[in-house]
Amino acid sequence: MTEVIGHLAGRVAIVGSGIAGLMTALTLAPQPVVLISRACLGAESSSAWAQGGIAASLGLDDSIDLHVADTLAAGDGLCDTEAVTSILSEARTAIAVLERFGVHFDRKSDGALALGLEAAHCRRRIAHVEGDGSGAAIVRALVIAARRSASITMVEGAEVRRLLLTDGRLSGLLVENGGKAAILQTSQVVLATGGIGGLYDASTNPNGNFGQGIMLAARAGADLADMEFVQFHPTALASQRRPLALVSEAVRGEGAVLVNERGERFLAGEPGAELAPRDKVARAIGAELARGGRVFLDARSALGQAFGKRFPGIARLCNEAGIDPTRERIPVRPAAHYHMGGVATNLHGRSSVDGLWVVGEAASSGLHGANRLASNSLLEAAVMGMRAARDIAGLQAPVRLSIPKVDLPAPAGLMKVRPIVSRHLGVLRNAGGLESAILNLLPHIDKDVGAADAALVALAIAVFASHREESRGAHARSDFPEKCASAERRRMSLAAILDAAHAIASRSVTRRA
């Protein structure tokens, strides 16, 4: 029997408790909301694992125009310029609001923010909290603020499995809690569920994050955008740990260099060298590994004994792996890290489904284009969480709709999907691999209920990647190594994605016959 959560009916439902979800809930106060988290509040969140901080053009030598220019350059021609300018212009406000919620940014002795440098930024503009523990410290402060807020009701240890529709309109959520089904009646939902890194064997994201928000929104009819653009962080700590630990770009910002097993700085000739855009660094490291080599991050000369003080979290992770970064080189490899694509939204976080907002990594706002500029993501999470809240607060109370009867789907599984994604949708792609991915994923969607949810997200990545016959930003194809003269963002519904996938599969079968 499915329980109906009657005492919370009609409230705005926020799904996810990373920075985007928490900022949405806190900004909506004193309006009552229900915040649903798969784990304890703030846990299993990519936000909490972020070592980098928040990009904000606050230095005396910096400006919004310079920050915009760096973002557009990293986005490789696919950023929405209006979104970039609009979101980045709220950086100072976001920092102030976070401080009001209890976040203490690192400051110099004169009280000014201690701003760091990261790849593809032309200025020091990264505001950190507790050094390389920025994400965890920010989430920790926001969780404390949320628990103190009388307007926020938390439902922890529960997973939203489906968005419910009545006559084409959002009417509720199907929630799984302890293996039991429950329904929350609501016609206003904010998805802040994070990224898709769990689809890959090598990832810096929580293992269970396969793009749940994207799946939920797509099944409800929302358009997806830019799904092909998966950013691989070039310097994950190469170890047996899963998910892989991250060695922040900020280490390279402090002067650490990348070398192969022969001691060669293979990026020395690249503009920006070790601080080139992430896609270029990841592909260069990938090429070294593909030839059978190894890659190391050498911070001995740049930081030496100061490594542990500047990067205490990374030092602990290295020590866990048996590496002393003050005396040894750190073995690194690329790993799936951030998804630029997601549910298509406007600048208020609204999706194409009435009553559904999507914020943070699950959304595609147009800020990141083909390749995210480092530390713009936490800024986007904070800004778009606030914007979605302000948008919702200005609306009239929604009409409650009757809720359809639904069964709880089989538990979502990743084991069958992860090998397909890791093999064919990685740093370098080609038509044959994309076609194989589609052929192998479709049966899971059509017949394998347990794997269907994860396979649906992976299929969207494969179809979008198949359509983009060029190399741009984080999407690189060996069969189309050049960029097209012009490029445009692509939006597709789930129905269109499935139609395209079946067409590609049909052509493949015909060609092989």
For the sheet with most strands, the description reads: 5 strands, parallel
Summing up helix and strand content along with how strands pair, one would put the structural category as alpha/beta
Radius of gyration: 22 Å
Shape: globular
Let me know the CATH homologous superfamily of the largest domain. FAD/NAD(P)-binding domain
The number of helices is: 16
Question: What descriptive keywords fit this protein?
Answer:
single chain; 513 residues; alpha/beta; FAD/NAD(P)-binding domain; Flavocytochrome C3, Chain A, domain 1; Methane Monooxygenase Hydroxylase, Chain G, domain 1; 5-stranded parallel beta sheet; globular
Could you provide a short overview of the structure?
The chain is α/β, with parallel strands linked by helices and 513 residues long. It contains 16 helices and 20 strands. Helix 1 (19-28) links the parallel strand 2 and strand 3 (33-37).
Layout of strands and helices, then pairs:
Blueprint: E1 3-4, E2 12-15, H1 19-28, E3 33-37, H2 46-49, E4 54-55, H3 64-74, H4 81-88, H5 91-100, E5 115-116, E6 126-127, H6 134-148, E7 152-156, E8 158-166, E9 169-177, E10 180-185, E11 189-191, H7 212-219, E12 224-225, E13 230-237, H8 249-253, E14 257-260, H9 278-290, E15 295-298, H10 307-310, H11 312-320, E16 330-339, E17 342-344, E18 356-358, E19 363-364, H12 376-393, H13 418-424, H14 431-446, H15 449-467, E20 491-492, H16 494-512
